[in-house]
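Our consortium's second objective concerns turning raw sequence data into structural hypotheses that experimental partners can test. To show how far this objective has progressed, the report includes one record in full. It was chosen at random from the queue rather than selected for favorable results. The single chain below, 433 residues long, was entered without modification.
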Amino acid sequence: SSQCGSNPNLHIELIHINQARVVLLRAAIAPMDCFAGIATAGAAGAYGYNRGNFMWDRELRMKNEFKMQEFRVAQAELWREDVRDLISLSEYKMTAYLLVNVLMLGYCVVLWTQGTFDSAPDWVLTATSISTCGAFMFWLLSIWMAMHAAVAAQSYEARLLTQLVRLPIPAWQEIEACRTGASEFEQVEPRQMFRIPFLMGRQEQHTAAHGGTVSRRRAASDVEVGHTDSGRDASTEEVANVDPWGLERGGEGIEELGCSFGASVARLRHVKLARQAMIRWQSYDAFARMSMSMGVVQLLTAMSYYLWGYLAVEVGTPEAALLAIVLFMVLANLLLRLDMSLSLGQLRRLQVLLAIGPIASTFACYAFVYYHLEAIRTIFTCMGVACLGHGSFLLSMSLLAQSSSDDQLVKLPAAFSSTLYLDVFGSVKEERP
């Protein structure tokens, strides 16, 4: 310093040397500052980019959850409509049965009160009254069974719709689970926060649940109210992720999503519940239809006897009575073919038993018209054969009305083809012995 003070030039040179050192030091530090700035800016950009993607995905996820809840409610409404359709099938039929049976009961009463004879023998009136009583009995039985089936169907429909098949309205916990806070971005892996697009691969490759499971808060579509396991928290579970952040699971197990067709519909829960409830009234439905059919056959037989007494005895035109009886018997046989599913042998046996009564009464009426009291033994013999034929016919029908399958939960008269319309899924098969 003493030298610098005595030599000004030396002092100036030292100053230049120090300035040169500072310049060199700054030149060495400048690249490091540049690299640090670039790295900081890149990290901040990657962080902002990934956070923006995260918030965008969370918003889409919330919309997806809300839309999924709408689909679940719509599916449940469809299920409730299915229950109404399945049960209303019986209700509509019972309404039709009741209307027809009441009208036919009124016709029986008119035939009792107005269908009298002035000169016809008592055995004709007796045969007519017995057949009319049979028709009245079957129709009255059909009315009682139809009323029971209708009341049972309406009661179980109300039970299913109010207790078992409900709309999946989300609870508060489910709606809250749809919300995602911005702070949840801090819970993801650091490599996800600072992932450089295209250079570091896809986002889902950096999740902790890649190829495994992740513990997360359950969303609204995941929470099954009343079906959670008792040994596990209902708010978290181990699930396989389906989103890039490892926070969501798939919806394959959600019952309300998807649409079934064909035979797969019969395996749905609400259909099984409806079919189980139908067991309570399907037997009454089937036997109400069978009783109505039997009542019609009995009425046709009663009309055959009545026309013999009126046309053959009162008016004196047995040929017209014979043609009318043939027409009524053709109608009765047609009803047997339409309402019953029988083999050819069984059908022919029923047709013969059904025709015995009108044929025997025809011989009796011809004997009375042309021979009067001289053929009284023949008349009563023919009427005894007619009663035996009617009894055999009713006994055969009773045997055919029994259930032909022991594995069914509900007893149905399988010989009547009308029972095929009880179950729209075809569990009751037509039997051809």
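The partners drew two points from this record. The first strand starts at residue 213 and ends at 217. The chain has ten helices and two strands. Both points have been shared with the crystallography group to help prioritize constructs.
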